[in-house]
Amino acid sequence: MTSTRNIDLVRSLGADHVVDYTTTDFARAGQRYARILDTVGNRSVADLRPPAAPGASFSPMSGRWRNRAIAREKALGPEEGEGAVRPW
User: Fold this and answer.
1) Quick one: pLDDT at residue 80?
2) Residues 62 and 86 in one domain
């Protein structure tokens, strides 16, 4: 998901499917994704569950979700903490 001006850049980085967030709400578009990479952290987990395919992984890279994942991993260790990528 990116803005209109960055669509070509995201495709050049290897994205299979690119959503322009200025025109489409990906969480309500009906598409299911195997991996959701959240680089902004401005959507709730509840928003991200519907577009997640069964067994999908969620990668919070910034914002409140990433900070929570880091704190949990520090407290519980990498095997028990959420880490950067965990399947739902």
Assistant:
1) 47
2) yes
